[in-house]
Specification:
By secondary structure, the protein is of the alpha/beta class. The protein has helices spanning 15-28, 76-82, 102-105, 115-122, 130-137, 143-152, 159-169, 172-186, and strands at residues 3-10, 32-39, 47-55, 68-73, 86-95, 124-128. Strands 2-3-1-4-5-6 form a six-stranded mixed β-sheet, with helices on both faces.
């Protein structure tokens, strides 16, 4: 049986690091893993999407509409855009942070209102103020790891496995803040 995790955010939020952390954790549990990155203008705050698929044997990293078991959304509008990919009965973990895309910044479009309410009406979502968790941990860039902590609590992978993977994957100078952010997300 294959599990599909879709990670969505904007450039600079650490979606690629998040996919490596999750991929390394499931590899350590003996699963076959495929990771794919799909990103647009990531350097300029554009959408970034990564896929992590794992199971006994995985042949393609791509996750199609209606196939994601879990969507980790680092920003609310990106969560809303990703909703069609969530499978029936899937789970979405959404950071409550708002990052305006360029069309909103330039005034060409308006940021949609009540995104969390719209998502809740259509899916099983957990909304998390991951930015506050990251700030409290000492690094605002640890939003990604805080959200992984929330997700990890509901996996069969033990806490110490996640911690070991974080120690092996996160650069040393950011490690302590990320360990704190992970723990805070895990204990939510």
């Amino acid at each position: 049986m294959t599990k599909n995790i879709m990670i969505v955010g904007v450039g600079g939020q650490g979606t690629l690091l998040a996919s490596r952390i999750i991929g390394n954790a499931v590899i350590s549990e003996g699963h076959d893993v495929k990771i794919s990155e799909v990103h647009g203008m990531s350097q300029r705050g554009g959408s970034v999407v990564t896929y992590v698929k794992f199971g006994d044997a995985v042949y393609s990293p791509v996750i199609d509409r209606g196939e994601a078991d879990i969507i980790l959304a680092f920003e609310m509008l990106e969560a809303y855009r990703a909703l069609p990919f969530l499978k029936k009965g899937g789970k979405m973990i959404v950071n409550t942070q708002r990052i305006d895309p360029m069309p909103v910044i330039t005034g060409a479009m308006e940021y949609p209102e009540n995104i969390l309410e719209k998502l809740s009406a259509k899916a099983d979502i957990t909304s998390v103020d991951a930015l506050s968790i990251a700030k409290a941990a000492g690094n605002t860039k640890a939003v990604n790891v805080a959200l992984i902590g929330v997700m990890a609590k509901n996996t069969e992978i033990a806490y110490d496995v996640w911690e070991k993977v974080l120690r092996e994957t996160v650069p040393e100078k950011f490690l302590e803040a990320n360990l704190k952010a992970f723990k805070a997300g895990y204990e939510l």
